[in-house]
Design goal:
Layout: H1 6-9, E1 22-25, H2 32-43, E2 48-52, H3 58-63, E3 66-68, H4 74-83, E4 88-91, H5 97-102, H6 104-124, E5 128-130, E6 133-134, H7 158-177, E7 180-186, E8 188-190, H8 203-213, E9 216-219, E10 227-231, H9 232-244, E11 254-256, E12 260-262, H10 264-272, E13 279-282, H11 286-293, H12 302-308, H13 316-331
Parallel strand pairs: 1-2, 1-4, 2-3, 4-5, 5-7, 6-7, 7-11, 8-10, 9-13
Antiparallel strand pairs: 10-12
Bound molecules: 2-amino-3-ketobutyric acid.
Residues 96-97, 134-136, 159, 187-188, 196, 199-201 line the site of 2-amino-3-ketobutyric acid.
Length: 332
């Protein structure tokens, strides 16, 4: 409606049909609730369907549709896609790096078979498909500082292997069938209102809770273990932006994105600015240390910045401020 003034446009919303209907799998993990909120603000509450195999907390139901979806059950997923007229699929279900090593057969089922199911359904129903990848898709033989988009990928975790598999399969389905597959490799994601589960970068979330609860964090990584990280708002915004980038601007289908890199010792210094008596001690978990030692230290996301304008907003200082602003009132 070109004759409408900017301020009048909100009274004449576009018809519902213009808005994609979006299914989020594994939506009760670290990223799903926040993403659903952003997408619901943009596309309408009822157009974003959260799903998982665990029970949603009571308040989740008031915020919009939530369904049981088992990504290992092809028919269950197919039925949801058809009945709910899904257009976009954001596939978050996965076992992360550390927990994956503790249960390799389950990780293979969820992270590999699950991807086969969503990939095939996305092809069949012409869905736009987003699958997150990770710094964990690289390994000890990859360049670690910096790590570009295209580099040797020989990860040594089942999580990493399954994510390389997802990247390659998605790019193949894009090339072979024109599937609109989009993938971002995320670093460690730090959030205040949701928790990660079973990852190697999880310490960077727990440290804030421990600082406020007891003033002490026992870190399972060595003090100088440098890893790429980003604050959740940046992570979710990068996801929204890559989903909305016109296909012709995407020169690749899998992009690195990041915001910062730090070590536990550096993060502890930042925490001390808010909790002066804060203490960090180290009790190294050999499994997670070995995983971290094989991952990128600094992630090169130049292509995302150049091709579709990716820009992070929060550095380590901004991140700490966000975390404490949210958590301090909760811990009193
Ligand atoms: C993990 O630590 O496993 C994840 C990741 C970096 O992919 N947070």
């Amino acid at each position: 409606e070109p004759w409408l003034k900017e301020e009048e446009k909100e009274y004449y919303p576009k018809p519902e049909e213009d808005k994609p209907r979006i299914l989020i799998t594994g939506s009760l993990g670290q990223l799903g609730t926040g993403l659903a909120k952003l997408l619901r603000n943009k596309f309408g509450k009822d157009n974003v369907i959260m799903s998982d195999i665990i029970r949603a907390p009571k308040n989740e139901f008031n915020r919009g549709p939530f369904l049981y979806a088992d990504i290992l059950d092809f028919k269950n997923l197919q039925e949801i896609i058809v009945n709910q007229r899904v257009d976009w699929l954001v596939h978050f279900s996965a076992l992360l790096s550390a927990i994956g090593e503790a249960n390799i057969p389950l990780a293979m089922r969820v992270n590999i078979e699950g991807v086969h199911n969503v990939m095939e359904l996305a092809k069949q129903y012409h869905l736009k498909l987003f699958i997150p990848s990770t710094i964990g898709a690289f390994g000890p033989s990859s360049p670690r500082n910096p790590t570009p988009d295209l580099a040797i990928q020989r990860p040594q975790t089942i999580y990493g292997v399954s994510k390389v598999h997802a990247e390659l399969l998605g790019e193949y389905y894009n090339y072979r069938f024109g599937l609109d597959f989009r993938c971002l490799r995320f670093p460690g994601v730090i959030s205040a209102d949701t928790n990660p589960g079973g990852g190697t970068t999880d310490y960077a979330v727990k440290i804030f809770h421990d600082a406020l609860r007891t003033g002490h964090h026992e870190c399972y990584l060595e003090p100088d273990t440098r890893l790429p990280m980003m604050y959740i708002d940046d992570c979710l915004r990068s996801l929204m932006e890559v989903m909305e980038t016109p296909a012709e601007n995407l020169k690749m289908r899998t992009y690195n994105v990041t915001a910062m890199s730090f070590t536990p010792a550096e993060l502890a210094e930042e925490v001390k600015k808010y909790v002066p008596n804060f203490r960090i001690t180290y009790r190294v978990d050999p499994v997670r240390q070995q995983i971290a030692n094989s991952w990128p230290q600094v992630f090169d996301d130049t292509n995302a910045r150049n091709h579709w304008g990716w820009q992070h907003e929060h550095d380590i200082h901004g991140l700490a401020k966000k975390m404490f602003d949210y958590l301090m009132p909760l811990y009193g």
